C-alpha cells in the first residue's frame, strides 16, 4: 500500500470518528432533554390539582395561581421550541416557589392532607427535574465544547450544528430568602 493511500485512510478514519463523536453528543443532548421533558410534563400535570386545592384558600394570591395556570397552558402547546421550554421552566419554577411560600401564610392550608401530598409530589418532581437539568447541562457543555473546539468545529459547522442553551437559575432564585420578611407577612 502506498503512503498517500495510507494517509487518506487515516484521514478518513479521523473524519468518521469526529463525525460519530458529534452525532453522539447531539443525540445525548436530545435524549437527556427528552427526560427533562417527561419530568416537566409530570410537574405540569400536578399544577391543576395544586391550583384547585389551594385556590379556595388563597384569594389574595389569585394572581400567582392565574400566572401558574397561564404558564402551564403555554408549556403544553404543541411544537414549542427547546429554548422556550427552558424559559418557561424558569418562570414556572419561580411561580411555584411563590405559591409554596404563600402556603406558609395559611395554617389550615398547610395542614390540609391534599396540599401536603401535592407539595411532597411536587418536591419529588422538582428534585428529579434538578438532577435531569444537571445531566443535560453537562451533555450540552460537552456538545458545545465539541462544536467550538478545533478540529471538530469545522465538521460541526459543515453539519450546521449550533450551540445549545443550558438551564440556568433565574436571578430571582439566586437571592437569599428573607426569612424575617416571610414571618412578618
Automatic annotation (TrEMBL):
It is a single-pass membrane protein. Residues 115-142 form a coiled coil. One of its GO terms (cellular component) is membrane. The chain crosses the membrane at residues 6-23. InterPro entries: LemA-like_dom_sf, MamQ_LemA. Its main location: membrane. It is found in: Membrane. Keywords: Coiled coil, Membrane, Transmembrane, Transmembrane helix. Belongs to the LemA family. This is LemA family protein. The lineage of its organism: Bacteria, Pseudomonadati, Campylobacterota, Epsilonproteobacteria, Campylobacterales.
Amino acid at each position: 500500500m502506498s503512503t498517500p493511500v495510507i494517509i487518506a485512510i487515516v484521514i478518513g478514519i479521523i473524519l468518521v470518528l469526529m463525525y460519530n463523536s458529534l452525532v453522539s453528543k447531539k443525540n445525548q443532548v436530545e435524549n437527556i432533554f427528552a427526560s427533562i421533558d417527561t419530568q416537566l410534563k409530570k410537574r405540569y400535570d400536578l399544577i391543576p390539582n395544586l391550583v384547585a386545592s389551594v385556590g379556595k384558600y388563597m384569594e389574595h394570591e389569585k394572581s400567582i395561581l392565574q400566572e401558574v395556570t397561564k404558564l402551564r397552558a403555554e408549556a403544553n402547546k404543541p411544537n414549542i421550541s427547546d429554548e422556550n421550554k427552558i424559559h418557561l421552566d424558569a418562570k414556572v419554577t419561580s411561580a411555584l416557589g411563590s405559591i409554596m411560600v404563600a402556603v406558609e401564610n395559611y395554617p389550615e392550608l398547610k395542614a390540609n392532607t391534599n396540599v401536603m401530598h401535592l407539595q411532597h409530589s411536587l418536591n419529588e418532581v422538582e428534585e428529579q427535574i434538578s438532577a435531569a437539568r444537571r445531566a443535560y447541562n453537562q451533555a450540552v457543555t460537552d456538545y458545545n465544547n465539541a462544536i467550538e473546539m478545533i478540529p471538530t468545529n469545522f465538521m460541526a459547522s459543515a453539519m450546521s450544528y449550533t450551540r445549545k442553551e443550558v438551564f440556568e437559575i433565574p436571578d430571582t432564585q439566586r437571592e437569599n430568602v428573607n426569612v424575617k420578611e416571610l414571618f412578618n407577612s
